[in-house]
Amino acid sequence: MKAALRRHPDLILLILLGLATAPLVFRYFGRLWGEEQYQYFPVLLGVMAYLGWSRWQEAPMATRPLRWPWVVLLATPMILLLVIAILYQVPVLAALGLTLGLGGVAVCVASERKVENLVGLWVLCWLLIRPPWGYDEKLMGWLQGITTSVASRLLDLFGSMHLTEGNVLTYPGKTFFVDEACSGIISLRTMLAATVVIAVYRNRPLMHALILVAAGLFWAGVMNVIRIGVIAVAYLKFGIDLTEGWPHDLTGVLVFLLAVGGVMSTDAYLEFFLGFIRTGVYGTRNWLVNGWNRLIGIGQVRLQAGDFEVKEKQPVAKRRLPLKVRWGLGVMLGGLVLLQSFAFLPMASRAENAPVNRAAVEPSEMFAMETIQPKNPKWKVVDFDQKARNSRSVWGENSLVWTYGDGEIRATFSLDYFFRKWHELTVCYRSSGWQLDERVILSDEDEGGKWATVRARCSRPASREQGLFFFDLFRTSGAVLDPVESVMAADWKERFSLRNMNLFKGAFVDTRALDVCQVQVFVVSDVKLTGARLKDIHEEYEHFRDQIYKRLMGGLAHHD
Q1: To which H or E segment does residue 430 belong?
Q2: Which of 126, 151, 363, 462 has the most CB within a 10 Å radius?
Q3: DSSP secondary structure string, 46-72?
Q4: What is the reported pLDDT for 488?
Q5: How many domains does the chain have?
Q6: Is residue 140 in some structural domain?
Q7: Cα–Cα distance between 468 and 465 in angstroms, integer?
């Protein structure tokens, strides 16, 4: 080990980077494992390790000097991100900082060996970073909207009786959301990751890789359409429910393998049509041919035969970081290790193990289908369901859902629980593929306090669907929460306030409270709901909200 450090002193910087990021990165991976659609990441880590090691073993010696300014350019934002990540204990920022640090490591490696497609290997690291502000959910919601439309048309073509409402498919005696058919470990994210791995493994140039990733989106859509069709046929023809348990997982794996085969076929197709045009020994003066070869050659990463030739009197490359850069990075990374080890890890451990102030009531024990009664006699409760989700689901861990019908439209009323603070429902619908058209706050004095109901409208331009929803939030103590004016500004202000800095977390005990309930109604229609219809839905929602609120407050008083 000592000999290796003497030969490669920059290894010390790599070790310090690992020590500074390991606690938060392990927590980040733990959270990824809790998200079912990201549980492919251990396989991705194994692929990255295999490709990196095998290509390092096969790589010829490099002849160019170390481009240390690139290391500094990547290390500067890395240090800033790690400082914020440690102070506020934000695992995703630590993972992002580590990814930038690995980019600097790749620059150093490029001065030692000419590793084939080293940039592609670094790109694989970015597949482990969740996009900010739910953009992955938005992409998935957009694809689900298209998938629902295409699957519905195919089911109509084959004479399968069903009803489509947004992303909900209703069969005789069975209703499920499209995300139940398109979710799980075999999902859009897994398909995109597999597509990028294929592009990197086969060392495709830039244009080829970008087109292949776009084709991966197409095959992900095909995969989900097939899954929905198989689930529909299995239920309607054979009475088999493939939306749960091992049948759901097996169906997903088989369809996923079929989709991967489609990606590989597309890759072979692109290899044939995006190949270089041979110009012979003396070249050609045809500007179209030369332009084409230059265009498709962008990002060409394959090693050539000449790369393995060792020339005599070959100049020795400068493969070490300048002494000042090494010392500067070493001091900063060492400071981050000390900050992580002696100042904040014990506090973080206490904060994680601190008891959560949970609500004293359990809504599922207090409500049933017949508990809630519509105000207007023309509305009828036609369905009731209880939903349990992942504890970090943006929709809430649990929901009680009542479906109302009046012969013309259906409205979905629900009680979602529990949250820690204000939960902006518009963000959830936007991440599910809806386009937010309106958000207004309606004030209303009631015996429960001052309600500030949010009314929002959304739409799907592709399917011309119009969505309308109302929602409120309150604590089980009875306090009504005021909605935020600017969703993004409020989230950033709260997330990076002093109360969330790990140094001061112990002084704010209410950050662990988990007692906020949300009530909402969501209606999907072909036209914009206005006038008497809008007033009717609003009044029915207020009646629903008041029933929920009074029963929960009564249950809490009885519990006390």
Answers
A1: helix 425-431
A2: 151
A3: HHHHHHHHHHHHHPPBP-SPP-HHHHH
A4: 58
A5: 3
A6: yes
A7: 10
Question: How many angstroms separate the CA atoms of 121 and 45, rounded?
Answer: 11
Residue 337's identity, in one-letter code, is: V
- Supply the range of the domain harboring residue 55: 2-116+319-350
CA triple 81-84-90, angle to 5 deg: 95
Running along the chain, 560 residues long, what does each successive block of 10 average in pLDDT? 56 84 87 79 90 84 75 88 83 90 85 81 88 66 69 69 59 57 62 90 86 87 78 73 72 84 90 72 64 65 53 51 80 84 58 57 87 90 89 81 89 92 84 81 66 90 80 91 69 58 52 82 90 92 93 63
Residues 333 and 382 in one domain: no
Sign (positive or negative) of CA dihedral 212, 217, 221, 226: positive
Specify whether the CB–CB gap between 545 and 413 falls below 8 A.
Answer: no
Cis preceding-peptide flag for 418 (omega within 30 of 0): yes
Answer yes or no: do 95 and 22 share one domain. yes
Instruction: Give the pLDDT confidence score for residue 404 in this predicted structure.
Output: 94
**Whether residues 553 and 405 fall in one domain:** yes
Phi, psi of 454 (to 5 degrees): -95, 125
CA distance 388 to 365: 14
Confidence at residue 541, expressed as pLDDT on a 0 to 100 scale:
95
